[in-house]
Write a structure and sequence with these properties.
The chain is of the alpha/beta class. The chain has helices at residues 5-11, 185-191, 200-210, 217-220, 264-267, 290-327, 332-364; strands at 35-36, 56-59, 62-66, 71-75, 77-81, 88-90, 93-96, 101-104, 107-109, 132-135, 138-142, 156-157, 172-173, 228-229. It contains 7 helices and 14 strands. It has 2 domains: 1-263, no CATH class; 270-364, no CATH class. The radius of gyration is 24 Å and the shape is elongated. The N and C termini lie far apart (50 Å). A 4-stranded mixed sheet has the order 1-8-7-13, with no helix packed on it. A 3-stranded mixed sheet has the order 2-5-14, with no helix packed on it. A hairpin with a 4-residue loop joins strand 7 (93-96) and strand 8.
Length: 370
């Protein structure tokens, strides 16, 4: 049985490729949800809506991939109630994995982990979080980077943040033009702490964004009409903030991660056997000889069954390796290496199966008259 991307993500938790797009529950630094070759648009420029109340923490907006629409869509930044006292939000991030962009889902935990070195703003400047801190069971907001109404919220402080991160709107790590950042020892340690995946309100927020055509990159060209919201899922009203401008012009075909564009199939590479198109049957030639036609049909069916079995066996083997890696709580680097290994295995299997079908078709082809 195939373990789909969402289940695999849960296994890699101690991150959610979504999508895979419906269940958004995962919580580990090394999880994959989506793998595609087209990089996400730049982060749009927008203001932060005012914090709606005590205990709400900021979760930055990000681009996510809708496989059905073959398009990125913007998930607006929003304020979310922390699931536990003392927990902070580590944002999700896109990273180039060698032959595809991989999405690592965000999570809640006691320490901020690695989020690709992406400068999401509002305290998330690429490393750590400067927007506030927990103290004696209460979250204190840094007004230097957070939009807080001090009439309603009194647990605030003002601490100037020196942001040494190069100011850009790049939304992914690695690949052509991506952020060149690697996790610090502290961020690697945070990976092994107890995590909580995105809460229900966040999952619903993502699904609402996915269903809004205005948030698709092909429609808004990197400048979403709903860049941020006061609360999850509230896409209308006074709490909605529109993007001032796109972070950079977005042309999908120019935003490849590496190598030459290879068409739609390359935008969604087959990582595992179950990602491949359904196994093919071809119609043997009608030779006019009933016995020979029957023999050809049997050869074709035998090859079809053999290839299906090999696909299932490889999928099972890869699923077992994912489970073993999850049990060892492997870091992101080892997880990416495994995904790359699986993609190579899958491509080799596909090439061999194609060659086998072509060989059989060639042997069964009617002899040409001389």
């Amino acid at each position: 049985m195939r373990i789909n991307s969402t289940i695999r993500s849960l296994m890699l938790s101690s991150l959610s490729l979504t999508l895979v797009m419906l269940a958004l529950s995962a919580a580990s630094f090394g999880q994959f949800r989506v793998a595609i070759r087209i990089g996400p648009p730049a982060l749009p420029v927008y203001e932060q809506p005012v914090c709606p109340g005590d205990g709400y923490l900021w979760t930055p907006g990000y681009w996510y991939w809708d496989d059905d629409a073959s398009d990125y869509y913007w998930v607006p930044g929003t304020w979310v109630l922390a699931p536990e006292v003392g927990f902070l939000w580590t944002p999700g991030w896109w990273g180039w994995g060698g032959d595809a962009f991989l999405f690592h889902a965000g999570y809640w935990g006691p320490t901020i982990g690695f989020y690709g070195g992406i400068n999401y703003g509002f305290g998330y400047f690429g490393v750590g979080f400067a927007g506030g801190r927990w103290d004696n069971g209460h979250f204190f907001y840094n007004r230097a980077v957070m939009n807080v109404n001090v009439t309603d919220i009194h647990n605030v402080y003002n601490e100037t943040v020196v942001n040494n991160t190069t100011i850009n709107r790049v939304s992914y790590n690695g690949g052509n033009g991506g952020i060149n950042a690697r996790p610090t020892p502290q961020e690697e340690a945070a990976e092994h702490e107890r995590h909580i995946p995105a809460v229900a309100a966040q999952n619903e927020h993502v699904q609402s964004a996915r269903g809004n055509p205005e948030l698709r990159a092909s429609v808004n060209h990197g400048r979403p009409a709903i860049a941020a919201t006061e609360k999850p899922g509230e896409f209308s009203g006074h709490g909605v903030v529109q993007a001032r401008e796109a972070g950079a012009p977005y042309r999908a075909e120019e935003n490849r991660g590496g190598g030459e564009p290879r068409g739609d199939a390359a935008a969604r590479p087959a990582i595992h056997p179950n990602d491949l198109p359904a196994a093919e049957r071809f119609t043997p030639p009608n030779t006019g000889d009933a016995n020979r036609d029957k023999k050809y049909q049997q050869q074709q069916e035998k090859l079809f069954q053999k290839q299906n079995q090999e696909r299932q066996q490889l999928q099972q083997k890869q699923d077992q390796e994912h489970q073993q890696l999850a049990q060892r709580k492997a870091d992101q680097g080892k997880t990416q290496q495994l995904e790359q290994k699986h993609q190579q295995q899958t491509q080799q299997l596909q090439q061999r199966h194609t060659a086998e079908r072509q060989s059989l078709q060639s042997r069964q082809a009617p002899a040409r008259p001389r």
